[in-house]
Amino acid sequence: MNQKMEELKRQYEEIPMPEELKGKVEEAIKRGQEAERREKYSKKRGGWLLILKGGGAVAAAALLSIVVLSNTSAETAYALENIPVIGAISRVVTLSTFADKQGDYEASIDTPKIESEEGEKKNLTEGKVNLNQTMADYTETIEKAYEADLKAAGDLGKETVDTSYQVLTDNKRLLSIRIDTTVVMASSNAFSKIYHLDKTTGKQLVLKDFFRQDSNYIDVLTESLLKQMKKANEEEEAAYFIDTEYGDEFNFTQLDPEQNCYWDEKGNLVVVFDKYQVSAGCMGMPELTVDRNVFSECLKPEWK
């Protein structure tokens, strides 16, 4: 490691720690607690099961060693990561990488950053700053969840956390960034968060923001998703939770207005679910595509 990288390491050796774990991580943990019951149900469906065997007791390693590599300049960023210039519109780089290896505990958590461009509108610059902070807060929560598990494990435990990101959409109107996280312990969990930035307003968007609120877009999308799930259960030995014995609290019955989603190259809506959210763990994080013709009348004019 050269002198400049050593300096970066020294500058970022300490990361502020929030007092509480919250948001998506808490939700994922709750889902993980239900995993066994869900997997037992999927076995009834005849689907194959993903089995991850946990290790036994392990000796705790030395004190936690955290290395955070940050792009304090464009030159440094390029040295750390290949900087994707998507359509010569937005440049997304790796702001920092939380990296830890201690015994059978290991984490690699990347945090993305959208760089501002010379001459862009003020509201877009402010929107990028706000989204960068939102994404940094999100990945920091994952870091703290990992650290909490490490601290609680004592001389026992095994865990691997991997968080990475990708740019899904980058055009004149919309920038979408997806952050995926996989947590492997005795079993595994996986969840994602997709952020959308409206480049004309600088505002962050979720699924509901693309649709007219006076439309029945939720019903339209839900109907399409349920049809696809039912067909997959019947023809592909899938294990979507749509008609289980556990009732509506367990089954998927209606789409969340803030469900993770993105737009594919044809303008269709791709709905992304976390592991265990609507199906057995053997299906990972399922994605279902709703054809644009199904919901086009429900879109806001600016998104048609």
Structure description:
- Keywords: Coiled coil, Membrane, Transmembrane, Transmembrane helix.
- This is DUF3298 domain-containing protein.
- The structure is a single chain.
- It contains seven helices and eleven strands.
- With 304 residues, it is an alpha+beta fold.
- Strands 1, 2, 3, 4, 5, 6, 7 and 8 form an eight-stranded mixed β-sheet that branches. A three-stranded antiparallel β-sheet has the order 9-10-11.
- The chain is 30% helix and 25% strand.
- About 27% of the residues have low confidence.
- It folds into two domains: 118 residues, Fervidobacterium nodosum Rt17-B1 like (Heat Shock Protein 90), CATH 3.30.565; 98 residues, Actin, Chain A, domain 4 (Alpha-Beta Complex), CATH 3.90.640.
- The N and C termini lie far apart (50 Å).
CATH superfamily of the largest domain: Fervidobacterium nodosum Rt17-B1 like
Terminus-to-terminus distance: 50 Å
CATH architecture of the largest domain: 2-Layer Sandwich
**Overall average residue pLDDT:** 79
Order of helices and strands: HHHEHEEEHEEEEHEEEH
What is the number of independent domains?
2
Q: What's the count of strands?
A: 11
Class of the largest domain in CATH? Alpha Beta
Coiled coil: 114-148
Keywords: Coiled coil, Membrane, Transmembrane, Transmembrane helix
Domain DUF3298: 208-291
Transmembrane segments: 47-69
